[in-house]
Design goal:
Blueprint lengths: L7 E5 L5 H10 L13 H10 L6 E6 L2 H13 L8 E6 L8 H10 L14 E6 L7 H19 L5 E10 L9 E5 L6 E5 L13 H8 L8 E4 L2 E10 L2 H7 L6 H10 L1 H4 L1 E8 L10 H13 L3 H4 L5 E3 L5 E3 L3 E2 L5 E2 L2 E2 L4 E2 L4 E3 L2 E2 L4 E2 L4 E3 L2 E2 L4 E2 L4 E7 L11 E9 L12 E5 L6 H5 L9 H8 L30 E2 L12 H13 L3 H14 L5 H15 L4 H15 L3 H17 L6 H19 L3 H8 L11 H32 L1
Parallel strand pairs: 1-2, 1-4, 2-3, 5-10, 8-26, 12-15, 13-16, 14-17, 15-18, 16-19, 17-20, 18-21, 19-22, 20-23, 21-23, 23-24
Antiparallel strand pairs: 4-9, 5-9, 6-7, 6-8, 11-12, 24-25
Helix pairs in contact: 1-13, 4-7, 14-15, 14-16, 15-17, 16-17, 16-18, 16-19, 17-19, 18-19, 19-21, 20-21
């Protein structure tokens, strides 16, 4: 990227989508002013743009005076603001600004007498829909690709000009949000067809016929295409200077999708192309759900930018990578790791907090466990509550002592305000995916009552009745590739992350160690199963058995006894359960045959004995397993030899009983 190329970033700081308005209603504040975890989102976005040296000017546009005042304060107080980067604010006319298309029209035609922004832009600018922006490799690479596309059009007589480069975020797991992108690969990267998720009726989409005909032509046989159905459009785009002008000429355009659809339908008339860039950077996922907000806040906490949030010296940094406000009251700070605790937070004795954000004036009781949670201002968490991946709304105090919640948003609904305090809890699923209804109805909600908006987002459930099947991954889904006269790729060479069971094993160990209640442990296991979508219920049984052997030689009896009620709930087929238990024993003993071998073998035999009631009817299969090569490392150990001899005796007795029954029946027949 040339250092002398001018670059401007435009932040449209207001939230217009239905999902964003639901989120603002929950938080009770504009998204731009939401703390993340201490500085506001808009302040954090400006900060990250200031660190991007090629960006010479930042425009923040909003129709909300509160947001603009916050930006003014940031300009005054930001010690990183240099003379080489300028931050400007513009007040949008509320009566004329209802969507991001109106923001682009403002950039071109201007609603005030101030200097026109369009004249201040370079050849292209970074357009950010919403107040959240985090600089990442994907943005830099997309900008470079866009500029390469400009050069491509200059060198190649295409007759078209690049209008914008849309950035798409790859989704690791899909849940009703698929979109369809069909595009050329390098060097053009141009979009040939795009269907947003609410338009897509089938995951399998045939390649458009016109491009099949093009591929048959030998001249174009080297063109490569990609077709993807696992993408979500980012809120960050690289937009050419001429694009806002198109919005002025087309007052019905509401977002970038509208001009893209028109370009694809009438590209010969408009003479414009749209290009695609695909990234895996988490920072490019749009901030459109409570889960994503919590994720953004936590990622800021765990990154170097946390120091920016704590520059006022009111926070103490601990060895466990936590930031604790000096006014917070914590019985044992060693139990708080990788977390942010704001002003006047109270934490009781024995409470463990990990990877969480606790906002000001919140109270956490004794003996609680909070993992990967966001607790908003003034919330109260009573004693012995266990939360994982939860969002607790502002001033909420309806949790019950000893309650366990997983993947939940907790807030007080208006319908329950007349109920007792203990009945006021409204639990909805914490999900990063939007409901299809809201995606289709993502229009101006100014006339919709906030209560109705909240109801449409709710999908109430009881965390103890979590269904595993809803989270099974589509590992055998059909490919979307179609080949004709060339090569078409379903991937942009993204490197998939390998499924790593190390953290799963650590989580399982922690649950077994901390829980002595069967129902609570069952819920925690379900929570692990949901959190790691590559883990099956069969994996859980296998890994739990392995952990009992390796990690609990001193108290295996109590822990194993709990599994008598848990394992059948996870795996209902008793023969499958047998195979999983035996496989867990194999893994737990083979992997540790050189370290404390005798202790491991002894514990494995006693764990097997404790679980025997679940698999008693399969004595013959157990003896067959014992006589196989899988157990050669266990043979000769006194505990195993004794237990297997008892199993063999049991098997012989059953055979003898069966023979006696047969003889008796024969005598009776005679």
């Amino acid at each position: 990227m040339s250092s002398n190329e001018k670059l401007v970033a435009v932040i449209a700081a207001d939230a217009f989508s239905a999902s964003a308005k639901v989120l603002e209603n929950l938080l009770g504040t504009p998204l731009a002013l939401t703390k993340s975890p201490n500085k506001t989102l808009i302040s954090a976005s400006i900060q990250t743009l200031l660190s991007f040296k090629p960006c010479q000017k930042i425009y923040v546009l909003s129709k909300d005076d509160r947001i603009l005042n916050a930006v003014k304060e940031e300009i005054i107080n930001n010690v990183y603001l240099s003379s080489t980067t300028e931050v400007k604010i513009r007040k949008l006319n509320p009566a004329r600004t209802h969507n991001y298309g109106d923001v682009l029209r403002y950039i071109d035609e201007q609603h005030t007498d101030e200097d026109s922004i369009i004249e201040d832009l370079g050849n292209e600018f970074i357009f950010i829909e919403g107040p959240y922006f985090k600089l990442c490799n994907g943005v830099v690479q997309a900008l470079e690709q866009h500029r390469e596309s400009v050069k491509y059009h200059r060198k190649t007589p295409t007759g078209f000009e690049p209008a914008m480069t849309l950035i798409f975020k790859k989704m690791q797991k899909l849940n009703g949000i698929q979109s369809y992108l069909f595009a050329e690969k390098s060097p053009s990267h141009r979009v040939l067809r795009y269907r947003q998720r609410d338009e897509l009726k089938s995951k399998k989409v045939d390649m458009p016929v016109p491009y099949v005909n093009i591929k048959i032509n030998q001249k174009n046989a080297n063109i490569e295409y990609l077709t993807r159905t696992d993408l979500i459009q980012s809120h960050v785009s690289i937009v050419a200077k001429k694009t806002p002008i198109q919005y002025t000429e087309n007052p019905d355009f509401t977002d970038l999708g509208d001009i893209l659809a028109t370009m694809l339908e009438k590209e010969e008339v408009m003479g414009l192309w749209t290009h695609a860039f695909i990234s895996q950077d988490q920072e490019l996922e749009p901030l459109n759900s409570v889960c994503q907000l919590k994720s953004v806040t936590t990622r800021r906490l765990l990154s170097q930018s946390a120091g920016f949030d704590a520059t006022d010296s009111e926070y103490d940094s601990t060895a466990s990578h936590s930031y604790l406000h000096k006014s917070s009251q914590i019985i044992d700070q060693t139990n708080v790791s990788k977390s942010w605790l704001a002003e006047n937070v109270q934490v009781g004795q024995g409470t463990r907090i990990n990877g969480s954000v606790i906002m000001k004036n919140s109270k956490i009781g004794t003996g609680c466990v909070l993992h990967d949670c966001y607790v908003d201002e003034g919330a109260v968490v009573p004693d012995q509550v266990k939360l994982r991946n939860c969002f607790i709304s502002k001033n909420y105090s309806g949790l019950k002592s000893g309650q366990i919640l997983v993947n939940s948003v907790v807030q007080k609904s208006d319908e329950s305000r007349n109920l007792n305090e203990s009945e006021n809890m409204d639990v909805t699923e914490l999900t990063r995916y939007l409901q299809v209804k809201l995606l289709k109805d993502a229009e101006d909600l100014d006339e919709v009552e906030p209560d109705d908006v909240n109801k449409s987002m709710q999908a109430s459930r009881d965390s103890k009745d979590f269904e595993f099947d809803d989270y099974e991954s589509d590992s055998e889904s059909e490919s979307d590739d179609e080949e004709c006269g060339g090569s078409i790729h379903d991937s942009d060479d993204d490197v998939e992350e390998m499924n790593n069971y190390d953290q799963v094993i650590l989580d399982i160990k922690e649950v077994i160690e901390c829980e002595d209640d069967e129902e609570h442990m069952k819920t925690e296991f379900r929570q692990i199963r949901v959190r790691y979508n590559f883990v099956s219920t069969a994996d859980m049984v296998r890994l739990v058995t392995r952990s009992l052997i390796i990690d609990f030689s001193k108290n295996f009896k109590v822990k194993t006894n709990l599994m008598l009620g848990i394992f059948p709930d996870l795996i209902t087929d008793s023969e499958e359960l047998l195979n999983l238990i035996l496989r867990g024993i194999e893994e737990g003993t083979v992997e540790n045959n050189e370290v404390d071998a005798d202790v491991i073998k002894k514990t494995s035999a006693l764990v097997f004995s404790g679980l025997f009631d679940l698999i008693r009817e399969y004595s013959d299969e157990i003896v067959e397993w014992w006589n196989s090569a899988k157990t050669k490392h266990l043979k000769g150990h006194p505990y195993w030899e004794k237990i297997i001899s008892q199993v063999e005796e049991s098997s012989d007795e059953e055979d003898s009983d069966e023979e006696s029954d047969e003889e008796s029946s024969e005598e009776e027949s005679d």
